[in-house]
Here is the input.
Amino acid sequence: MEKQKFVVIGAGPVGALAALYAAGRGFDVEVYELRGDLRDPQVVPLNFTRSINLAMSERGINALKHANIPGLVDSIMTETIPMHGRMIHGVDNGSFTEESQNYDIHGRFISAVDRAGLNKRLLDELDKLPNVKMFFNYKLTGADFRAKRAWFEERSKPLTDHAQNPSEIQDAPPRATEIEVAFDFMLGCDGAHSAVRYHLMKYTRMDYTQSYIDTLWCEFHIDPTPSTAGTSEGDFKISPNHLHIWPGREFMFIAIPSSDKSFTSTLFLPAHHFAHLDANPSELVPFFNRYFPGVAGRLISESDLQKQYTENPHLPLITIKCSPHHYASSAVILGDAAHAMVPFYGQGMNAGLEDVRVLFSFLDAAAPTPEGRTSALAAYSTQRTPDASAICDLALRNYQEMRADVASPIYKFRKWVEEK
Ligand code: FAD
Here is the structure.
């Protein structure tokens, strides 16, 4: 087979890893990314006001290891913070309480990783490879998967603004310059509102569902303690080795540690509660005091809490399932493009990175011909679609666990029995 050109759409964590796997196998790789280069300080990560921390698990780490890049995993892991369990916050007789619940009796843990840091590290590796070309500020607008041609708008004005909703970015005003690109194989890693998936649907009988839950999320930031005389930096305000949860039964507030000793926090709340607090801003601090004791005033000043609530967007949570994930030998979708999920199981990115490992294990085992790739992609879709669907369901189920069950007497009894 002639040297094949792999085109990767989206330079998020999944697209960047997919490009590294493809380049490592000697293919010519081109990566097209709608936004600017994340390493440019002007570029704000999609969906977030700044970089946030995510929980990385064995699933994601294993996929990074299989990229076979010396030093890559070690350099990423040194920047992570181990979270050995969750810390459940409450109040008892007027005093704040903390209850540590370990994830694993053998001491295994998940790691808090800076999403942008991980993404940049993968982009740095791509920069080193002679068979990779990266195109930032290029938006996929069309694709013909039979003729293997794709069209992109080159955005002369980079998108550095913060989109309230990721789908709005797909609908940003068209640009003047359009280019046509020929390819042999397209890997669509362009997120939940994937343009690749949209075009793929015209070529294959794709079953597709998307569903929103009646919960929105808003990002908060907990600063480190102020630095004291003689020290250059402050400290973590709460334990750095836990994922912190304030369970509110129907909603919750969580915090994940960052290596700069701050925490990325998220408020998950039904839309009608957001609407009520939007209309009655003076109720925000009392609401936090009632349901998330010890946050307002202690971890985030009341004025800052109000400011962050008002300034940071209140974003939706979507589950997307589809099948198949591919078309013939010419296209596949990976990551959120194939299976966006609610974030309660901490597995969205991990599962997307795992897609890359699993996909290439099928491609590696196939004959190096278009027919071989067609069979490999069909087998990949057959295996991966039920797995993706299962993890989407587990993620939904884990919301109940995090917001309510962790604090219920039944949960505590079950844990007590398990530990006996
Ligand atoms: P994305 O990160 O969405 O990247 C897609 C890229 O494609 C973007 O850079 C975008 O600009 C680009 N793009 C889009 N359209 C086009 C186009 N037309 N042309 C060219 N480029 C395009 N996951 C975890 O594993 N652990 C966690 O703890 C966790 N916590 C989360 C918390 C929250 C609040 C949220 C919202 C998500 C969380 N996730 C977590 C999920 C995780 O963020 C996603 O699963 C992950 O970012 C998906 O990566 P991706 O590369 O598939 O897609």
In short: Residues 9-15, 32-35, 46-47, 54-55, 139-140, 170, 189-191, 195, 217, 266, 335-336, 343, 346-350, 352 surround flavin-adenine dinucleotide (CB under 6 Å). The chain has a mean pLDDT of 92.
